[in-house]
Amino acid sequence: MFAVLVTVYFLPHNDLTVDGFSFSALKTRHKRPITSPITTTTKLHDSNSGGFFAKFVNEIQEKSTEQTKSNLPPHPSYSRDYQPNKSVINIPSSPLPSHTTTVSNTLPNGFSYCILPNASPSGRFEAHLQVFTGSSSELQHQQGLAHLTEHVAYMGSRKRERLFGTGSQTNAYTDFHHTVFYASCPVDIPDGQGYTNSVFNGGNAGKGKMVGLAFDALAEVMEASCEDSRLEKERQAVLSEMTMVNTIEYRVECQILSTLHRENRLAKRFPIGKEDLIKSWTREDVVEFHRTHYRPDNVLLYVVGDVDIPDVERYIREKFGGLSAEKHGAELKEDQREKAESFAREVTRTVKSEQSWHFPPTVHEWSEKGERCRDESESSYDLHLQNRYDMDDETLNNLPEVSLPTGGAIRPHVFKHELLQSFSLHLFAKRRIRPIVTVEDFVASIARRIVLAAMQIRLNVSARGESPPFTFVEFNQLDSAREGCAVCSLDLMAEPARWREAVELAVGEIKRLGLYGLTISEVERYGGACLTDAAQVAAQGDRISHSDQLGYLMETVSCGHAFMSPEQSYIQTEKALQSLTLEQVNEEARILCEHIVGLADGEEPIGGPVVAIGCGPKDNASADPCDKDALIDTLVKAANREVYPEEDIIVPRSLVSEEDLNASIEVQKPEWRSGSFTDGTPDTPADKVTTPLTLRRLSNGIRVGVTASDAESQRGHLRLVAPGGRMGEKRLGFAPGAAALGARTMQEGGAFGCWTREQVELFCVDHLLMVEINCNDEFITLDFVFPTTEVGNIGYGDELKAGINGCEAVLQVVREIVRGFKWEADALGRAKASFHSTYDGLYKNLEGMSAEKIIGEMTGGDQSFVSVGHEEIDAVTLDEAKHAVMSQLLPSEIEVSMVGDFDTKEALDLVLKYLGTIPADANEEFLAKAPNADQAVRSGSGAVAPTYTVPPLPLPARQLDFELEDPDPRAIAYVSGAAPNSWGFLAGGGNLADQIQSSDKNPSTFDGQRRGHPLFARCALLLISEIVNRRLFSNVREKRQLTYDANFKFTGYEQIGGGFFLCTVTASKEKAQEAMEACKETLEALVSSQPISNDNLESAKRVVVNRHEGEMRTTRYLSELMSGLQLDAVPKKGPLSLTDFNAMVQAITVKDLQLALAALDVTNNLYTAIGKTILPKDYVEGKDGSPALTRGPVGGTRGGPLTG
């Protein structure tokens, strides 16, 4: 059950997230945000005049084009014939309202901007410069040039360097449809930066404004000088990036995108480009691309944050008003202009011109009923790259569609690879993006959300049978500006031997939805979720973060939707739900599923193809392997399966009856006790609410921390931690992996009390609860996300029947998990299948395998620190899994931290009622049966040091080499050594702070006080990590040009004494050894030739403090910080770790860090490792059916950009 809990959170940047089925899987799966109907217009324009960009066009057309005259084809905004959205939007009489504070305008040179004041976080802003050119605009000889140009323009900016040390974050990324440069900055220039004069303050005296520095950096990108030295540095960085991103997940995504977009440019214009071309380009090539596309009339600047609009507009005029498209055009040669003009003429026949200039220049074969969309023009220009070209992956030129007897068509593709362990299916239908600008559009979008949420739950329930055929399944439809279409997708994963069963079940469920639609109770359930979430976002208002607001604004503008405030969106959602009918919802269900239903005999097929990609192991020993014919046959068979309407399940309104609860209160008589701590904080009172945290214990021993936070309106986070984890599993004598498998079994199960798993699951869905259960080296953790308002409501308006409070609902679930959880054999089976798949995937992943092996070597093979292997997985029984988990869930040992937008006293009363009535001896019987029960670590011992420690580091340290069979060349290197845990405790005993104090030959009284603070070691390690990472970037990437990415981190244990630091660097196989040595040299320089400077420290302090303050605005982060405050198992962690954090960071000195590095001894006893790919045995390139190396959009996410 808990693996299928669903939330329908309509956040500004991701208004439909159906999270469930497998939490761990979802963390690695794609999540493209569905475009919300919560949408944008500006206060400078009439809300009835169409989409956001159309308003730019109307304004621009009123200006004289003489001011922006250029030898290049003008931006479409300058063409009086160009009418964006003309063929798509027919403005009816019921437009949606517009956001009232958004301002947009266009400078005389064509430079457009949009400003959205936003309050959270205060004192900061974000600026994103969007260039309407990405990889899809590249010519044949330019593949990858958009990305390289981004690197050169961004990294070559001298003014960008002024942002260093100011607490700013800045970066850039390239995608199919655009290139974006961004800066997230404080509003005011920090003291000590030397920029407080009027030059950086709009001509005014006083404190300087960061907006001027940020705009300087972005403006310089538009006029990049493209120096030869910078080109060479970025060429090497991009080539390293090609190697780094080329994971098997990445290659699968390449196959998916190539097949999905076979009919247009996207299949052959991946942002990473072609390696041979990247190696060949000169400065002139980069300048040509830059001057062609980086023009003021081809960009849009977004500014969101705590800003003053007139000030920002003044800076925009000052910094960007002097840019000139004519100047750029004059630098191009005649033949270059002709090529650009030829391409621009063809763009008029694409979605970029016809619907939104934000889209790539593509056409699509729509998977919709009606005439099939094809490019029938007589132009000889091969805009959509359907011809064969040099450097093409021939796989892309051999993806024919198969016509079905029913009249429909399937475009099948099967991809097999040595590194794949599971079968996966990716089934698509491409549809036009439907702009949401009217009330009617909005109602349809709400209906579509409800359908998608219901479908996901149905699939999840199907996956929770006794022997489910798939291990992951997701059905969704998302608007994708980067692809210029809406993509309806079915993604599933299954065991290779059961691929047909998985496909048939999932496709059958979609057919059922398309034919019979939803039940009334489903519409009520998911409609209520929509309204609850809209209310939460409305309560958040302008406290939604700048980054979320900006991301949503960009996506909304791109797709042509209206942009409403959260309050306006809530009002429209409530009205829509009051008028929404079952027939309207089921009509959306029919549209969403028509591509599947149309495959069946006797049904009307869609006009375009259904795209199907099957992926699986190359050497599959299954008697029923998947090939193209088998895939098509299975899809058609599944579409012809007979299906029946969905049956409703009775869902409880409450999991705990009032009678049972009152009886428990009478027996247990729960009371509050004072809280106690290991950091020197005095005991807290049992009868008073304290600030900023209320920390107490219940009479049954449960430690409780509660704090109110309105950072996430009407939402909360609860974390339950039980010390022990896999270390406790080992100490108590349970089988290796028993606790880890037990935690996953809990996640996969969910029945308790008199309720079945399905009933509990739908209770959680109704109450918008999300649950994630994990077991790591140190703890078993249960994380809950919940609303803090009344949820599970039925009906709307006058017909509303209120449910229970979300705080009460989550505490009911926690209570039943601790005291009455039912352990099911089928849940253990699913847990084992998940662990087997994870383990196989780990050892087919270069990074994962190498990291696993080096940690294994450094811990002497201790099984508590490495993944659970196949033999251990199979050996664990249900009883062992149950006992390993429940023996750690003892009231006297666990701690519950609860953060949210609630009244603290009311939350405490609910905690007392539900958790205080858990018997004090609950689960003691499981501990008593543990093989080593007498060695259990119990609270009250007054421990001043960790009970568990990492094993002694085997010496002498050594070089390790690992190999992975993979035809694509890749390498990764590591440098690692011993380190303390987060609180400074060392594996051999003692504490880092004590070592520093004893090594200081002349410490002052203040030095001793500072280093004696319980938070000192934690803050020192955070600062060291930040400084080392900056040094690695400067030396290994910038100076030595050996890698795209190198990073340094500590393992950060809390309960376990000791740990490790790990320096990771990706590089080519030829440069892996050199890159590893460069990392070692960087560490050595920190304690010798280039010690930490005051500038290094001050810059790191700003980053650490800003990161902490930013994350403190999330309930999850705060609940994680609160976990362990009252645990004896985590010495030194207490309330001071929250209240004194910023002060301690600011107090640390350069000398502290230099002494800390000396104590860490980062130059001796270092383990080093290099993992490399090798050709598979008997591999013959081009003769084994393997496609040539294909590199697509970076990352394992369909929809992820290429970050520069």
Automatic annotation (TrEMBL):
<feature type="domain" description="Peptidase M16 C-terminal">
    <location>
        <begin position="876"/>
        <end position="1102"/>
    </location>
</feature>
<dbReference type="GO" id="GO:0008237">
    <property type="term" value="F:metallopeptidase activity"/>
</dbReference>
<dbReference type="GO" id="GO:0046872">
    <property type="term" value="F:metal ion binding"/>
</dbReference>
<dbReference type="InterPro" id="IPR007863">
    <property type="entry name" value="Peptidase_M16_C"/>
</dbReference>
<feature type="region of interest" description="Disordered">
    <location>
        <begin position="1182"/>
        <end position="1204"/>
    </location>
</feature>
<keyword id="KW-0378">Hydrolase</keyword>
<comment type="similarity">
    <text>Belongs to the peptidase M16 family.</text>
</comment>
<keyword id="KW-0482">Metalloprotease</keyword>
<keyword id="KW-0645">Protease</keyword>
<feature type="region of interest" description="Disordered">
    <location>
        <begin position="63"/>
        <end position="86"/>
    </location>
</feature>
<dbReference type="Pfam" id="PF00675">
    <property type="entry name" value="Peptidase_M16"/>
</dbReference>
<feature type="compositionally biased region" description="Gly residues">
    <location>
        <begin position="1193"/>
        <end position="1204"/>
    </location>
</feature>
<dbReference type="GO" id="GO:0006508">
    <property type="term" value="P:proteolysis"/>
</dbReference>
<keyword id="KW-0862">Zinc</keyword>
<feature type="domain" description="Peptidase M16 N-terminal">
    <location>
        <begin position="118"/>
        <end position="268"/>
    </location>
</feature>
<dbReference type="InterPro" id="IPR011765">
    <property type="entry name" value="Pept_M16_N"/>
</dbReference>
<feature type="domain" description="Peptidase M16 C-terminal">
    <location>
        <begin position="280"/>
        <end position="360"/>
    </location>
</feature>
<dbReference type="InterPro" id="IPR050626">
    <property type="entry name" value="Peptidase_M16"/>
</dbReference>
<dbReference type="InterPro" id="IPR011249">
    <property type="entry name" value="Metalloenz_LuxS/M16"/>
</dbReference>
<dbReference type="Pfam" id="PF05193">
    <property type="entry name" value="Peptidase_M16_C"/>
</dbReference>
<protein>
    <submittedName>
        <fullName>Uncharacterized protein</fullName>
    </submittedName>
</protein>
